[in-house]
Each structure stands twice: as structure tokens, then as C-alpha cells.
Design brief:
This protein is an alpha+beta fold. The chain is built from two helices and four strands; from the N terminus they run E-H-E-H-E-E. The chain has helices spanning 28-42, 61-81; strands at 17-18, 48-54, 89-95, 110-116. The radius of gyration is 15 Å and the shape is elongated.
Amino acid sequence: MTQNSDTDLLPIRLEPVYFELDSTTLRPEFRDTLTQLADALRQRPQAKVSITGHTCELGTTEYNLALGQRRASVVRDYLRRLGVEPSRLSTLSYGEERPLSASELEKNRRAEFLVSGGYLN
């Protein structure tokens, strides 16, 4: 097997995955995003991904922490099905604690990614 140079690597796109209100169902338009992320991660065996789940402010703190965790887990499980090793994926829920917008609540219903290790271009 040959070592990939930086120019051969697919870029890692770290766009959020958004969810409907009170939902953990992956929307079809984000499946391609996750497929591209999985492809890029398979080229970088040293890279690890932390997936964070977020919610809007509707609901109790406890409910939102659990919903955020379910969202992060759904994304993790999808990446696993696409061939990313489970040991490279971790999840964390922030619930409603890290909103992107106070006026557009739908932007807060998301999962985000933090990649460490490997080449991140």
C-alpha cells in the first residue's frame, strides 16, 4: 500500500448535520455529507472524530442533553456503517448549551464534528 501525499487526500468538510425539531432522523441531504466525511477519514487512519450533539432551547435541560446524545450517536453509527472504525469516533452532547442562533432555532438542532490527528486539509 502506498502512502498518500497531502495532495492525494480528499478534503475534510466539517459542515454540521441538521435535524428536525425533536428528531434524530438523518435527513437525506446530509447523507452525502457524511459519506464524504467517511471517505476522507478512511484516507487518514490516524484521524479521530468527536461528534457533538446540540438542540434548541425547547424542552428541559435533561431532555435536551439526552436528545443531543441521541443525535450524536445516530451520526456516529452512520459513519460506522460507512466503514469508519468505532475506536476513532466519540460522542458528546451539549444539549441547548451552545446555540448558534438565538432567533433561528433550527440552526441549533445539529451535530458537529471536531477532527484531530492525521492531515486535516
